[in-house]
């Protein structure tokens, strides 16, 4: 016997339709002859029939997959929005209120196919209810069921493609439903503003939804409304990440998550709201990178990947900017081109045909278009890595996070800072910071002028120094400022670190003692720069802080003196960076009359001491002695 559920759906489909389905759905409806109830009456009757149908489903014993299949078939074969919406609402309510029977049956009957069919609808209400149906299914499914349903065909990516069919209809309500699926907190209402605030117990359950939302926000043309959604999305991610360590780890485990976030930022913002969005992106990057460096083994690789992805983003924007400039120049040349003067008779009385002249002599605009066309065919290539303003911004934000931890250790008066550095809980943090210092060592040496050119200038008879060109994308002031911060980190995380760097060197395929040799190059570059600046800058010797100098005849541990003089042990978080080059250099130079500054001498001593004590071969220490 045919069940009442199937009979009721058949009656709704063929007799109590709201819009004639013969055009789109392709089946012939009944009840077209005679007196037909009004639209409002049909809607009211459908409402009672669906209420009756819902009670039949609830009261039925066990799982009736054939009845659920009938509901899915209705949603799949009917294409008129008015004929769909009420049945779809009933299916969403059933999935929400009775997941124990509905979810397994929905999975076995491949109900997700119907969801993606509904997502192509031009009606936002249909799309939102389809997303709700998917959300309730994922929320009440086991991890294995979710994986088996979504991953084999990469359905999360398909979800973004389906929603992009109607890019101009992406509203805040659509975003809220997608965010509910992200955290699996599906509500029954479709609202522009959520009533519940994000708390520490909110967890990212479907991390692929971050890619879905970011793809939509990236591919949809910018508008004031889209800016609001971007800000809301970034604020939500900031709250999720700041309140939960597990959420940060989930995002970090995503593939190329940096690309999704950087796609929302603007390399060259043209308005205040674009600048605001970019600020939020870098605030989120700072939070995630700090977590990776602080807590995750191998977190330094996340930092390297972020620099590379950001470089690709900046290079691509520069390429587009260049192409746009070429287009503008071509248009200007076309507009400024003088009109062709009419042909005049020649001396023999014959006239040159106008068509012949235009065919034989190409105009300037034609030539420009040919040049532009040939130039446009140049392939896009990623240039050699260099630091852009966005790289510097990211670098400074990461340094700020690391230095905040160091100052927190420094504020603890119950133990020396070396105990915190060498504590087992901070070993991952220290290793990641050393990796970052190692990665930047050669870049900084080159950006500051190069160690060999600086040594040649310092030891020449005329003391002439070559003009220092900007290398690695860093100006002289930027390079010195970064060098100052890197040396402060090196003092603590390398010289004050009693651990061995052998495993770290093996991980980077470096020879034994490679980290200390890089530290030596940084120290020597820093010392020679100080020596050169003392010759070319004017200082007031009366203002020299003699209390910082080590009295002759006293023998102290070089590490102890370094901890007294180093940058991070002397400054506070509120200290501003010196934008003026003279002020920046003055912060380095404590004794202008000395060939080497006290801090540089103690750093060299510490490197020699550490290398001799901890390494089987003291080759690095001997090299330092020869250089000094």
Please characterize this protein's 3D structure.
Residues 341-374 and 540-549 have low confidence and may be disordered. The protein has 628 residues and is mainly α. Among the domains are: 1-110; 416-627, no CATH class. The longest helix is centred in the middle third of the chain and has 38 residues, at 299-336. It is built from 29 helices and no strands. Helix 2 packs parallel to helix 4, helix 9 (155-163) packs parallel to helix 11 and helix 12 (224-243) runs parallel beside helix 15. 30% of the residues are buried. 64% of the residues lie in helices and 0% in strands.
Task: Throw out a few tags for this protein.
DUF4704 domain-containing protein, 64% helix, NBEA/BDCP_DUF4704, 29 helices, mainly alpha, 628 residues
The radius of gyration is 35 Å
| Distance separating the two termini | 100 Å
**N-to-C order of helices and strands:** HHHHHHHHHHHHHHHHHHHHHHHHHHHHH
What proportion strand?
under 5%
Count of helices? Answer: 29
Shape: elongated
What about the largest sheet?
Answer: none
Please tally the β strands and state the result.
0
Helix content: 55-70%
Structural class: mainly alpha
Q: On the 0-100 scale, what is the average pLDDT?
A: 83
Low-confidence stretches: 341-374, 540-549
């Amino acid at each position: 016997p045919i069940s009442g559920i199937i009979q009721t759906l058949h009656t709704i489909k063929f007799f109590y339709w709201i819009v004639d389905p013969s055009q789109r759905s392709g089946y012939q409806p009944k009840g077209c002859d005679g007196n037909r109830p009004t639209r409002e009456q049909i809607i009211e009757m459908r409402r009672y029939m669906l209420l009756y149908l819902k009670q039949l489903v609830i009261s039925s014993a066990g799982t009736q997959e054939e009845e659920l299949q009938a509901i899915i078939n209705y949603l799949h074969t009917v294409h008129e929005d008015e004929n769909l919406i009420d049945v779809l609402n009933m299916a969403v309510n059933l999935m929400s209120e009775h997941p124990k029977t509905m979810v397994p049956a929905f999975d076995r009957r491949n109900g997700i196919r119907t969801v993606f069919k509904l997502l192509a609808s031009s009606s936002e209400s249909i799309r939102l209810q389809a997303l709700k149906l998917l959300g309730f299914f994922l929320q009440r499914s086991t991890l294995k069921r979710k994986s088996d349903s979504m991953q084999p065909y990469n359905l999360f990516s398909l979800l973004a493609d389906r929603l992009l069919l109607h890019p101009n209809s992406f509203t805040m309500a659509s975003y809220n439903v997608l965010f509910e699926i992200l955290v699996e907190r599906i509500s029954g209402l479709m609202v522009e503003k959520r009533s519940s605030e994000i708390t520490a117990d909110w967890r990212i359950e479907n991390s692929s939804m971050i890619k879905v939302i970011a793809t939509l926000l990236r591919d949809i043309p910018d508008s004031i409304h889209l800016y609001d959604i971007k800000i809301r999305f970034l604020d939500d991610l900031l709250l999720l990440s700041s309140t939960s360590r597990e959420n940060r780890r989930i995002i970090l485990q995503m593939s190329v998550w940096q690309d999704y976030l950087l796609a929302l930022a603007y390399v060259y913002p043209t308005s205040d709201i674009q600048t605001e969005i970019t600020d939020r992106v870098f605030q989120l990057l700072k939070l995630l990178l700090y977590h990776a460096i602080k807590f995750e083994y191998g977190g330094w690789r996340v930092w390297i990947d972020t620099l590379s992805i950001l470089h690709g983003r900046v290079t691509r924007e520069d390429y587009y900017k260049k192409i746009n400039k070429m287009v503008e120049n071509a248009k200007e040349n076309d507009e400024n081109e003088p009109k062709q003067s009419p042909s005049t008779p020649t001396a023999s009385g014959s006239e040159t045909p106008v068509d012949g002249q235009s065919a034989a002599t190409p105009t300037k605009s034609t030539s420009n278009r040919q040049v532009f066309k040939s130039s446009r065919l140049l392939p896009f290539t990623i240039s050699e890595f260099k630091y852009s303003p966005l790289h510097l911004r990211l670098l400074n934000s990461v340094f700020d996070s690391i230095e905040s931890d160091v100052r927190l250790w420094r504020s603890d008066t119950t133990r020396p800072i070396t105990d915190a550095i060498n504590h087992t809980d901070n070993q991952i943090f220290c290793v990641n910071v050393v990796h970052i210092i190692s990665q930047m060592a050669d870049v900084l040496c080159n950006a500051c002028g190069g160690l060999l050119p600086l040594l040649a200038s310092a030891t020449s008879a005329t003391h002439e120094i070559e003009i220092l060109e900007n290398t690695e994308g860093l100006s002289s002031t930027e390079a010195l400022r970064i060098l100052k911060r890197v040396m402060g980190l090196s003092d603590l995380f390398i010289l004050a670190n009693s651990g061995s760097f052998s495993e770290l060197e093996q991980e980077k395929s470096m020879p034994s003692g490679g980290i200390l040799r890089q530290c030596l190059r940084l120290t020597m570059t820093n010392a020679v720069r100080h020596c050169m600046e003392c010759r070319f800058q004017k200082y007031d010797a009366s203002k020299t802080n003699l209390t910082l100098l080590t009295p002759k005849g006293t023998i102290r541990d070089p590490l102890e003196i370094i901890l007294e003089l180093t940058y991070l042990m002397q400054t506070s978080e509120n200290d501003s960076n010196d934008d003026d080059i003279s002020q920046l250099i003055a912060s380095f130079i404590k004794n202008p009359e000395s060939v080497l500054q006290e801090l540089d001498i103690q750093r060299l001593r510490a490197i020699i001491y550490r290398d001799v004590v901890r390494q089987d071969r003291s080759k690095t220490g001997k090299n330092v002695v020869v250089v000094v």
